[in-house]
Every structure is written in C-alpha cells, then in structure tokens.
Amino acid sequence: MESMPQQFNRSDQSVSPALPRPLSVLRADPERLLGVRAGSGTAVNSGFAGLVAIVLTTFFFYGVYLFPEGPFRSMLLERGPTQYIAVFLGLWCAVILVFKKRKLSIQRRALRHAVIPENHEFVLTTTSADQVIRAIYAIADDPQRFLVYNRILIALTSLKNLGRASDVDDILRSIGERDESTHQTSFATLGGFLWAIPVLGFIGTVLGLASAIGNFSSLLDNQTDVSGIVGSLKEVTGGLSTAFETTLLALVIALVLQLWITSQKKAEEVFLDDCQDYGLRQIVSRIKVQREQEPN
User: Fold this and answer.
1) Which of 24, 35, 158, 240 is the most exposed place for a label (fewest CB within 10 A)?
2) Does the CA dihedral 158-164-169-170 come out positive or negative?
3) 23: how many CB neighbours lie within 10 A of its CB?
4) How many angstroms separate the CA atoms of 87 and 243, rounded?
C-alpha cells in the first residue's frame, strides 16, 4: 500500500481537484509540530497539556503578583493553596480543549474532498477499489490519521476480501462505534478535573471556616476589652474570606469549563455523524457486488 501514492496521477480530475498541498496531520497537528507524541483523532496527550498548563499557570500568577493591591489579587494570592491548584487544573483543561478544537478542524478538512468520481455511473467494485485507495493517498499524505479515510481504507480492503456490500456496511459501523468509544474516552481527563475543581473550592471553604473559628476562639480567650475584640475581628473575617472566595473561584472555573466541554463534545459528536454519512454516501451507496455466473 505504500507504493499507491506513486501509482496515482494527481492530475486526474475525475476523482478530486488537484490540491496545492495534500492534507497532512503531521504538518498541522499542534502536538506534532511541537515534537511530542500526539493522540489519535481528536485525543490529546494529557501529559504534554499538563506541562503547558504549568507554564501558563506560572505566568498567570506572576502577572497577578504584579497587580496593585486589591480584592482580585488578594483572592488569588492570599487564600491558600487551593486557589493555585484550581487555576492550574482549569488551565490544564483549557489547553486540552484548545488542542481538541484544533485537531477537530484538521479532521474536518477530510470531509471536504470526495474520494469517489463525480460521475454517477462509477460503481465501486473489488476491481475499482484500488482507484479509490489511490485517490485517498493523493489527497492525504497520511490518510490513516484521518478518521474518515481510515474507515474507508479498512472497508475497501475488506471489500476486496469479502465481496459483500452488507459486510462493508457492518465494518464501517463497527469502526464508527470504536471511534465513538475513543471520543468518549478522550473526555475522561476533563471529566475528572471538572469534578475535582469544585471539590477544591469546598476544601478551601472548610479550611477558611476552620481558620475563622480558630481565630475567633483565640480572640475570646486573649481579649477582654471591646476595642481589642473589634481589632482582632480582622483575623476572623480573613478566614471567612478564604472560605467563600475559594468556593467562588472554583465554581466560576467549573462553570466556564462545563459550558466549553459541552460545546466541544457536541462538535465532535456532529463530526462523527458526518463521518458516518460520508462513508454511506461515498462507499456503501456505490458498491456493486460481483456475483459469479452459475454454470449452465
């Protein structure tokens, strides 16, 4: 199969218009451009995304540190470790979602190009399957990395071996189910972080309330005059600020991420449905099963 791209004439306009540059995941995937191992399809290398998030978190808090004194600066820098962890997890999720969006746009490019000739008289058989395979290799340098082309290549190989249209349809559906499972798995890390961020906020609330109660008890033990009690109440309110602001930050981050994840998941589900329709229109609807002639 490696020699197929050389056998296909790129100037053959009967299959697809000549492209100035063939499709390539290797030249467009953000992870591969940065020299790291990339996930398949729209999946993201979570470890690399975490490293990027560490760098972004460092720059973010350094920028906040340069802010003048104010409520926003105090909420992020003076409310305990949960704020740092919540922001880090939020940025980690954001990096994954940005990469997934970019990967999805790359995968969608494959749907713009037909691999079957526009001629309605063209019939896909075991003999003409090679022509379609060569067309796919002319469009994409690495077609196996495109979900829709990978489905078609596997289906056409099976067509040549099985020769039954119903089996090819079943194979396309089976690969589609596998891609849907991979799609769900690619959101597992995001789901875990989305659960952890509000929990961090509640942990911050508990720590803040514990600090406030401890300071209040110490205040009652050490102060006897009213003026001293009023002055020491600042320590108590500081603990209450930690209690409420950690929860506020965590819930805001979780809300934004939930909406973003929902949007991205919907976009990928629509893409998988489009891949299924593409396979039906380009492959299944053009298949003609060749039957052997029965002896007289």
Assistant:
1) 35
2) negative
3) 22
4) 17
Give dist(CA 218, CA 237) in Å, integer.
14
**Distance in angstroms (rounded) separating the CA atoms of residues 139 and 72:** 52
pLDDT band at 16 (very low <50, low <70, confident <90, very high): very low
Q: What backbone phi and psi angles, to 5 degrees, belong to 283?
A: -115, -65
Closest CA to 248 of 71, 92, 96, 50: 71
Rounded to an integer, what distance in angstroms lies between the CA atom of residue 187 and that of residue 265? 8
Q: Is residue 143 over pLDDT 90?
A: no
User: Residue 6 — pLDDT band, cuts 50, 70, 90?
Assistant: very low
Tell me how long the chain is: 296
Phi, psi of 23 (to 5 degrees): -65, 145
What pTM, to 2 d.p., does this model score?
A: 0.80
Residues 6+ apart with CB under 8 A from 267: 101, 104
Pairs from 104-110 (Cβ < 8 Å, separation ≥ 24): 104/42, 104/264, 104/267, 104/268, 104/271, 106/25, 106/28, 106/29, 107/41, 107/42, 107/146, 107/147, 107/148, 107/271, 108/271, 108/274, 109/23, 110/23, 110/139, 110/140, 110/146, 110/147, 110/148, 110/149
Q: Where are the domains of the chain?
A: 4-286
Rounded distance between C-alpha atoms, residue 168 and residue 174, angstroms: 10
User: Helices 81-109 and 188-222 meet at what angle, rounded to 10?
Assistant: 170
The region that residue 45 occupies, defined by phi over 0 for left and psi between -120 and 50 for alpha, beta otherwise, is beta
